[in-house]
Design goal:
The chain is built from no helices and eleven strands. The protein has 126 residues and is mostly beta strands. A hairpin with a 6-residue loop joins strand 4 and strand 5. It is globular. The N and C termini lie far apart (40 Å). The mean pLDDT is 96.
């Protein structure tokens, strides 16, 4: 099992940046593909970004391509989402998720992930 704790959320003006971190417990972090998802009020949880166990494969939602970057440090059991050029529509609770996978394929579907953090609020003001 793995436990996930997100941090780094907050309030930022449009055009600004935030860096979200997800700390994972356990000794087998490098066995997990990791993803970031978000959920705005009244909307379904949606895919934001994902990274394979090795970091070799990354995938992004079209809405964040070119603005967000996902990375991981397997030695530190962390995954980071760097968010630049933030827009008001990026406002949501952001969740870190994990699925055990040795594949280079990363998943976008929420039901592919087995472990979830508690979420961190990101609010972008105009």
């Amino acid at each position: 099992q793995v436990q996930l704790v997100e941090s780094g959320g907050g309030l930022v003006q449009a055009g600004g940046s935030l860096r979200l971190s997800c700390a994972a417990s356990g000794r087998s972090f490098s066995s997990y593909a990791m993803g970031w998802f978000r959920q705005a009020p009244g909307k379904e949880r949606e895919f934001v970004a994902a990274i394979s166990w090795s970091g070799a494969s990354r995938d992004y939602a079209d809405s964040v391509k070119g603005r967000f970057t996902i990375s991981r440090d397997n030695a530190k059991n962390t995954v980071v989402l760097q968010m630049n050029s933030l827009k008001t529509e990026d406002t949501a609770v952001y969740y870190c998720a994990a699925v055990r996978s040795g594949s280079s394929i990363v998943e976008q579907a929420t039901n592919e992930y087995d472990y979830w953090g508690q979420g961190t609020q990101v609010t972008v003001s105009s």
